[in-house]
Amino acid sequence: MTLGSHAPAPGSPTGVADYAETLRRALEGISGAAHADLYLYHLGNNRLHAQIYERAIRMPGIVVLHDSVLQHFHLGTLTGQQYIEEFVYNYGEWNRHVGEELWNDRAACAVDPRYFRYPMLRRAVERQYAVIVHNPGAAAIAREHGARKVRIIPHFFEPAERPDAASTERFRQRIGVEPGAVLFGIFGYLRETKRILPCLGVFRRLHAVMPNTALLIAGEVVSGDLRRMLANMGDQPGVRRIGHLSDEDFRVAAEAVDCCVNLRYPPAGETSGIAIRLMGIGKPVILTESLETSEIPAAAALRVPAGAEEADMLFRQMALVAGFPEIARQIGEEAARHIGARHALEDAVEQYRQVIESVGALVKAGAA
Known about the structure:
By secondary structure, the protein is of the alpha/beta class. It has helices at 15-26, 50-58, 71-77, 80-91, 96-104, 114-117, 122-125, 136-144, 165-174, 196-209, 224-233, 247-256, 273-280, 310-323, 325-342, 345-365; strands spanning 3-6, 30-31, 38-43, 62-65, 130-133, 150-152, 182-187, 213-218, 239-242, 259-262, 285-288, 302-304. It is globular. The chain starts with a strand and ends with a helix.
């Protein structure tokens, strides 16, 4: 049996491309062949996946959902009438008015929770032989939208060579972080759901009482509204801002921070590859409490609830990291142990093989 893989091209500005390429190299016999007996499709919530999405619908195979909310993908690729009909396909004629409202109000889609309540996933998963997700939250969304066979395979961690202490210290000096300061980091593509503005507000409170702290915000802003808001805030004491990082620079920056802030609200079923990488190298990470993060042990990460308590709890968790370095170190050690036990690349590859072999046997037998 031949196995084809379809994902954004290596080097594309998305972590999905890196994930898919690593998996392709690890799985023997997989290729980007145009004609194969079975296809593996990597789907995410942006235009880079448009052709992959169309192909997955035409030729069902195994879909890997890196984002389980495709709402914004549809808003960005469909006309108004197409979007409304797709909404009806997912949620019924009786909800047509909801689809019309969402299309008309789409300027607020980055922050309005309504858009996350309707993942619009049915067409992508209902005919697939298997759907692979990375966490229970994504699994629940896929099943609600008609997926027949759902398998949770934890997002893998591939260890890389760690930067040396001199490189790390040079990076901190370059961005203007004082020696001994506790450096928090927010990484990746910056959008409203990563809670950037609330994080800045909390850090302002923290820095006022613990001035030996700093916050690095690293990544490309993908929302025009957020870009304007960040620009209007001007220079904030302790905040350091840099743009998109190459993989090599990211590894240095990840080593340089003392804690990663990785919030997500509203949740979209995704597992953060950045959080997995930071935990894998023993850094404490602050996560939003959700079904998506429910399989991470309490001792292996810090959490904050969504909603009214978010800001106060985030302040307490950041103050804990800044004020009690030994506790932060222990959390990081637990994080690394958990990632090593549950997110090893070789374990994930073996689970992929099991799904592929199971589906492949059905395809060969003509019973799928």
